[in-house]
Amino acid sequence: MKMQSLFYGMAFAVVILAVLLLVLGVNFQRPTALQGAALYDGANEVTVKGVVQETQEFDCPVTEGELDSHLLLKTTDGVLEIHLAPVRIMSGQGIRFAVGDQIEVIGAKVRLTGKTGVIARKVTRGNEVLVFRDRDGKLLMVQ
Question: Number of folded domains in the chain?
Answer without folding.
Answer: 1
